[in-house]
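Entry 12.
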Amino acid sequence: AVRYRDRQTEPDADMTVHRIHVDAKGLSNQKDAKGAVKVDLNWAEQGTLALSGEVGLVPLQADMAMKAQALDVRPVQPYINRHLQLVVTKGLLASEGRLKLLPHEADSLDIQYSGQVAMNQFKSVDKPKAADFLNWKSLYLKGVELGTMPFRLTVHEAALTDFYNRLIINADGTSNLAMIMGSTKPSAARESSDSGAPPKTGKREEKERQANIKINTVTLQGGKVDFSDLYVKPHVRLPMSQIGGRVSGLDAIRTHKADVLLKGMVGGNVPMEIKGAINPLIEKPFVDLTIGLKGVDLSPFTPYSGKYLGYKMDKGQLSLDLAYRVADNKLTGKNKVSSPERTKCS
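Predicted 3D structure (tokens):
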């Protein structure tokens, strides 16, 4: 068994691997010599990892088949804390493919992986309030090609099944998403939108946006998004369900736009369709989407009409065709609103 503790995290990262079994033949410190190695071990409280293949010691290199089953991701929570105000309460990682360690300049290693990856039974809560944030039953990545020197990632197909996301606008104008990402300034997005100036990004953010990431197809099925707006009174809650569809052709390098087609239900009985093109991975994210809603009951939107128009809507229905485009950090929108019946206000 091996216990690993990292005191540079908050709290300390504390991980254990046990029941380690190693078979090795032909290992040598001669340059470019390679031996055969097979490793089997148990990870933390749950999960197994098996590696087998060739290993060289001088320089360090490896080419091994890898199979991971039901690896508990909770022990890596201290590393998540560095970037997100998010607590992972459950998650099991599985993978099957090929792992390579290749010598790189300046005594570093290019870590490469090709194969399939799955994250199942994932559950998370926001750290400040311990409220549900993002859950899913299955996330399956097929045809993964990963490298680290430089960073590059290609995914042939990503499939997300039975997912749930909680989105909240708080009473002070902040959102739970911004809080998780580390930003709690309620006016930041509004100020950049009102001024017409592009949002400021640091060198690190620009570098990450320019990373070589390609995802050919993203398939969504059985999704739920629970939206609440606590900024207006009375509060607004708008649940969306049965969300499914496809996003095709995400690419961080090319200016190619990914095709989007999503369908679902709003409030349990209103059909919703989102279609168009996006590319959130490029330096200046691009969005060109139309959102169609047919026969929307207006009563849940009474807090908005009361706050911004001075009238409360007692009853009525609307059909909405909304078009939004973001290009060169500028947002434009065209909205078509029609009412099949008379709306009653008070």
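Annotation: The first strand starts at residue 2 and ends at 6. The two ends are 71 Å apart (CA to CA).
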